[in-house]
Design brief:
Blueprint (H helix, E strand, L loop, with lengths): L2 H17 L7 E2 L20 E6 L12 E5 L1 E2 L10 E4 L4 E4 L5 E9 L7 E10 L10 E10 L6 E9 L14 E9 L9 E12 L6 E5 L3
Parallel strand pairs: 1-7, 4-5
Antiparallel strand pairs: 2-3, 2-7, 5-6, 6-13, 7-12, 8-11, 8-13, 9-10, 9-12
Length: 220
Amino acid sequence: MKRPLLLFYFLYATAMNSQAQTQPAPQPLPYQQNFDALPASATVYPNGWQGWLLAGAPSGAFNTAPPAGDKPMIANGSASSTANGVYNYAGKTGFLNSGSADNALALSLSTTGKQQITVSYDVMTIRNPYNGSSNSRINEVVLQYRIGDTGSFENIAETAYRNDTIDQTGSGVTLPQNLAGRSTVLPPDCAPPPLVTLRWVNRQTGGTGSRPGFALDNIT
């Protein structure tokens, strides 16, 4: 085989690998995760979890398309972290978008033989650059689900959560801001299949400037 053709196959394989996404291993029910055992310096997701990059840029609509690729976990995230990514926020995990990167957190569950599956969790803001002028963004987080490990996601509208208008951008700060609990019963079609994927995403609802960063904790 000629060298140019070898180079073509190498570049093609590299491009495909860079866009691949990992479906996390499904976790049995009942399930609980509070991230207490995850050191702030950890860069490996707990079993069942994965950070994803979604296709396209953030917009005013929740992205329901399949993930476009994986996102590594960034250690020691705080309210002063400004790079887009999926963060380890010291006892909780979350994500921060940019103008070109739409990020998400996913959890895979084994639902064989289960019905009336209730998902409860805490959602919060970690980074909030809101100042009412140059930074005035309000973003909204929602829980999504899909049956199996392929295809698009569905929004669970009643889980929606928004950041408030209180600034928090201090270095090393990981205190929950505007902490809220959410609980929902998954739709009936989640019960018969052996696998359900949950995913937390956010959309832009208004404002301009820097974006808020969100986190999750106490998932049951």
